[in-house]
Specification:
It contains one helix and 17 strands. It is mainly β. The longest helix has about 40 residues. The N and C termini lie far apart (about 165 Å). The relative contact order is 0.08.
């Protein structure tokens, strides 16, 4: 009986030992499996750089290659496709705008060039001109003013002033110098065969002795019987030198000069047009003769007077009074 109990105890202990070691081996196997799964996990750091997964052996897993030899592109938006030596990126096209330099014209005082000034930088050193005279601008940006000044207590003379774009005076020319009052009130500029010329519309109150029309002007002198106000037109170069000119006055039956008051001036590529009012005797070219006109003159005092002349001021092309 005692021997049988001893055997039962022996087998019970052996069975418990075997069961203990079985649980121990089973726990070790579960631990080993968890360790392998943890080793194969990929940890993405906060910087966004994805390391290559590491196997249990500790060596990096190589990315599979395409047949072209380039690695597969990642679908992660933070990582751009890898550029291999076989990949050539397009070169951006740079657009270059070429600016053609502006050509400078040589200055000429003889009127042979469009730019008749000696200031290539378009600046002058005189005082600032502040008179409210009639003015025009040439192709180089210089301004030309015309008007008149009170020379003495009983005499006014016409002037031409050139300034730069800042109204600093380049030159100032006194166009007339005589005892009768002489005033310029309008100015125009005209380009003719590449050269710019100035046209000035002026008036005089008597026997003008200083202004003399050149180049065979339509009326070469004031006439006689001084006193009535008549108009005259001057054509000058940009330096102010006279090229041509003509008086434009009426004539009484006695032959004395009579009034034409010119107030408007326009110059185009072919003609010089002036307009104003007239007393008796203004020259006309209209045919047939209409009411208030006879013998080629206007006989109606106070009429509107319109006249067209050639650019060289030698020919009266058209004139009428209304």
């Amino acid at each position: 009986m005692l021997q049988q109990n001893h055997q039962n105890t022996y087998f019970t202990n052996k069975y418990l030992s075997l069961l203990f070691y079985s649980f121990l081996i089973l726990g070790f196997c579960f631990s080993l499996s968890a360790c392998r799964e943890k080793t194969n996990d990929v940890v993405i750091p906060s910087s966004g750089n994805t390391p290559s997964p590491m196997p249990a052996s500790g060596r990096p897993i190589q990315e599979p290659l395409l047949t072209s030899g380039r690695p597969l592109e990642s679908t992660t938006t933070n990582n751009p496709p890898a550029v291999t030596p076989q990949t050539r990126l397009p070169v951006p096209v740079q657009r270059v705008t070429t600016r053609r330099p502006s050509s400078s014209s040589s200055s000429s005082s003889s009127g042979s060039s469009t730019n008749s000034n000696n200031n290539s930088n378009n600046t002058c050193k005189g005082a600032v001109f502040s008179q409210s005279w009639a003015w025009v601008v040439d192709s180089q940006g210089f301004k030309y003013y015309t008007g008149y000044k009170q020379i003495s207590s009983n005499n006014q003379d016409a002037f031409l002033v050139k300034t730069d774009s800042s109204n600093k005076i380049c030159y100032e020319k006194q166009l007339t110098n005589a005892s009768p009052d002489e005033r310029c009130s309008r100015i125009a500029i005209s380009e003719q065969n590449g050269t710019e010329f100035l046209y000035l519309l002026c008036s005089t109150d008597g026997g003008n002795t200083s202004f003399r029309a050149t180049g065979g002007g339509y009326q070469s002198s004031y006439g006689f019987g001084g006193g009535p106000k008549i108009g005259y037109i001057m054509k000058t170069r940009l330096d102010g030198s006279l090229v041509a000119g003509t008086f434009l006055g009426g004539k009484l039956s006695s032959g004395k000069t009579n009034t034409i008051n010119l107030e408007t001036l326009n110059v185009d590529s072919t003609i010089v047009s002036v307009g104003g009012s007239t007393a008796y005797g203004a020259p006309l070219t209209t045919t047939p003769v209409r009411s208030g006109q006879s013998n080629g003159v206007c006989e109606k005092s106070g009429s509107v007077y319109l006249a067209d002349l050639s650019l060289d001021l030698t020919t009266l092309l058209k004139a009428e009074c209304k």
